[in-house]
Amino acid sequence: YIFRYLTRVQGGAKAFSMRDATIGLSPQISSLMTSMGYSSCVGYDLTKREMLFAMKNSRILFSNSHGISNGIKLMDGYLYSSDIPANVPSKLDLVYISACYSGQQFVPNLYNKGAKAAVGFKGNISCTATGDGVAHFNYLVFLYLSRGDNLQTAIDKAKAFIKEGYGRDAYEEFGIDSIVTYGSFN
Fold it and tell me: What are the residues whose beta carbons fall under 8 Å from the beta carbon of 8, sequence distance 6 or more?
């Protein structure tokens, strides 16, 4: 478990990326976070307790997961928004949850509990439709953020790139139009 390293970082990590082993762009997102001036840790197979620790001690949290409207799937079950105590995400400058339906309740609740900016998807998203789909989109968002764009501009540029590169049908199949943002990050 690489995540164990995070628990031994003096003073907590500034950025944390939860990575699904099947999605190859998450380590590159961690590198982009590092280029933005954040220390970055990557965790695998997190439990609810470990995710709460990451939320409490990170400035940026990026997570690939399966989701439902009010939770995300972790190794020991779903972490529901009701499981997250108030102010736990208050240090988070940005929480980016790449999971189906996370933008319906889970992500807005993180924002309401103190995260300064939050990103999720209201609908079904797919990484397998054509190549790496949403994973590539997520990478592009962080690439544009690392180049100095604000969150909304980074998302808009990534949407345009995906539409042009993959085509409108694939873009719709990926579910990228269901992205929602709360707050701002630059």
Answer: none
Residue 47's φ and ψ, nearest 5 degrees, are -95, 170
Cβ contact 81:71 at 8 Å = yes
pTM of the shown model: 0.81
98, 125 contact by CB (below 8 A):
yes
Handedness of CA 164, 170, 172, 174 (dihedral sign): negative
Residue 136's closest CA among 36, 23, 41, 38?
A: 23
pLDDT confidence tier of residue 29, bands split at 50, 70 and 90: confident
d(CA 18, CA 31): 13
Percent of the chain with pLDDT over 70: 78
